Amino acid sequence: MTADRAGLRVSDAERDAVAAELAEHLKDGRLDTAEFDERVGGAVTAKTRGDLDRLLADLPRPAPVPPPASRWRGGWPLPLVPIVFLVIFMAAGAGSRAGWHAHWGLWWLSWWLIPIAIFTARRLLSGGAQGGR
Questions:
Q1: For the CA atoms of 28, 30, 32, 37, what is the dihedral angle to 10 degrees?
Q2: What are the contacts of 112-115 at 24+ separation with CB within 8 A?
């Protein structure tokens, strides 16, 4: 710590944080109750950052908490199956308008593609296969 920072005034929240850290050291057995009481009293009356740092100088500092790992599902960024269904759906619509296969065309493909597309979209938006709701 630089001398400039050691002279900075501290807030009540910083004093409380040091007192909580000292309580953890008491719980872990690094401090006895007399040392704890003396150091917490020093934390309550501390004016500068240097005052607080002296109270913790001979104690190990807690390890910083690592940020949570991002969850990557793997696979393609855009799944291939919904894209194929979309292409088939578009072809069915174009084919029915062009008069394929008499008057029915291929429009019937759209009726079973719509539920599959909705199901696939819901699974993609909910994070994939993670079990039931």
A1: -90
A2: 113/85, 113/88, 113/89, 114/89
- Name the DSSP class of 9: B
Nearest Cα neighbor of 55 from 23, 22, 101 is: 22
Encode pLDDT of 76-89 as tens digits: 556 667 777 777 76
Give the residue carrying structure tokens 């900075």: 8
Whether the CB-CB separation of 51 and 72 falls below 8 Å is answered with: no
Given a contact cutoff of 8 angstroms between Cβ atoms, the answer to whether 22 and 55 are in contact is: yes
48 Cβ contact partners less than 8 Å away, ≥ 6 residues apart: 6, 7, 8, 9, 10
Whole-structure pTM value: 0.48
DSSP string of 30-77? SS-HHHHHHHHHHHHH--BHHHHHHHHTTSPPPPPPPPPPP----S-S
